[in-house]
From TrEMBL:
Organism: Isoalcanivorax beigongshangi
Keyword Transport attributed: yes
Family annotation (NCBIfam families): 3a0106s01
Superkingdom of the source species: Bacteria
Chain intervals for the UniProt region annotation (Disordered): 356-379
One of the record's GO molecular function terms: ATP binding
Family annotation (PANTHER family): SPERMIDINE/PUTRESCINE IMPORT ATP-BINDING PROTEIN POTA, SPERMIDINE_PUTRESCINE IMPORT ATP-BINDING PROTEIN POTA
Protein name: Sulfate/molybdate ABC transporter ATP-binding protein
Keyword terms, alphabetized: ATP-binding, Nucleotide-binding, Sulfate transport, Translocase, Transport
InterPro entries, per the entry: AAA+_ATPase, ABC_SmlMolc_Importer, ABC_transporter-like_ATP-bd, ABC_transporter-like_CS, P-loop_NTPase, Sulph_transpt1
Amino acid sequence: MSIELSHLDKHFGAFHALQDIALTIPSGSLTGLLGPSGSGKTTLLRIIAGLEQADSGAVLFNGQDVTRLPVQRRRIGFVFQQYALFRHMTVADNVAFGLRMLPWRERPSRAARRERVQELLRMVQLEHLGERYPAQLSGGQRQRIALARALAVKPDVLLLDEPFGALDAKVRKELRRSLRDLHEKMGITTVFVTHDQEEAMELSDQVVVMSQGRIEQVGTPAALQAHPASRFVLDFLGDRNVLEGDVDGCRWHSGPAWMRLAAGLPSGRHRLYLPSHGASLATRASANASLPVRVLGINEQGPAIRVELAAEGWSSDALEVALPHQHDLGDQLLRGTLLYLMPGPMQSVDAQDRLGPAVSLAGPDGPKLEASGHSHRRA
Ligand SMILES: Nc1ncnc2c1ncn2[C@@H]1O[C@H](COP(=O)(O)OP(=O)(O)OP(=O)(O)O)[C@@H](O)[C@H]1O
């Protein structure tokens, strides 16, 4: 089920909560609405659901105008941050709730309902907990049940509002993986709200960055990292190293550190923003870059190795590079070792704080490194 939003506007009294929102959500995609608190993410999700009406504009599902269609008729599964489970019902009855509420003609028989509930509990890996009550579950388990309940009626669209917001970091990670696996298996068009850029980047096929009721940028995680469209997106995505130095023609330098860029920037001071996933490390300088760094720390947990670095003899804030677990540094990747940073594409910002062009290293180092982007994210 594809979703198209055109020219959506929404006011709450005098407050302009959404301004001229236009967005296409491809069928079967996993789309993240990302933005700071108050940027309008939840309002947009509620308008897609039919829980809120826009003042103007249209919502289309598979090309059909559903703008005035009530929520019950949109075939939506909804998961909220606060687990909205019924406390007096068992887990199995909670999951079956939507099925029992279906109109008589569509309602499966008691036996079929029981079977479907078991299948859903299996899908969220909680088949042994059907007879428990919500109070006897952990927060993460409750969110899995909320997910199973949302999926029970075979929705065309799954909407999740900060579904993992109230959970601790480890459980969040597990649930993200479950959601991605379920999405890959079922292929339901899914939209989720988050203010956590890491969550949005890790989960989404398409990220929609919102600010003050507007869409700032839409793109794949890798495209947003490589080509942020505004200062807001650049800052909000975070996870970047800032290399500050002077440019003469194609040469950037800061103290003894230097690199040759594939294309020139106007001469003067520039900051180059380098995503931590967009760089590698080498044991020696190359013909196009000499950026000496000292290894401060190595964290091997998670999908990538995170290496903390300090610029050696040149000034920079703390640096961080995410390396694949199969890197070719061998035993050179040790705390205290001197290595060389090899940047991939970087975003330039000039001394007046204006977004400049994306830049990369000259010669063979540049294109080779571009591949390192976000290729790990489905690993
Ligand atoms: N029913 C309402 N009445 C008045 N103002 C509202 C209402 N719902 C939302 N708002 C306002 O609209 C703006 C956008 O709210 P929304 O909940 O969509 O933001 P959000 O990006 O989801 O933020 P958060 O991450 O904090 O949930 C906020 O300033 C909020 O106070």
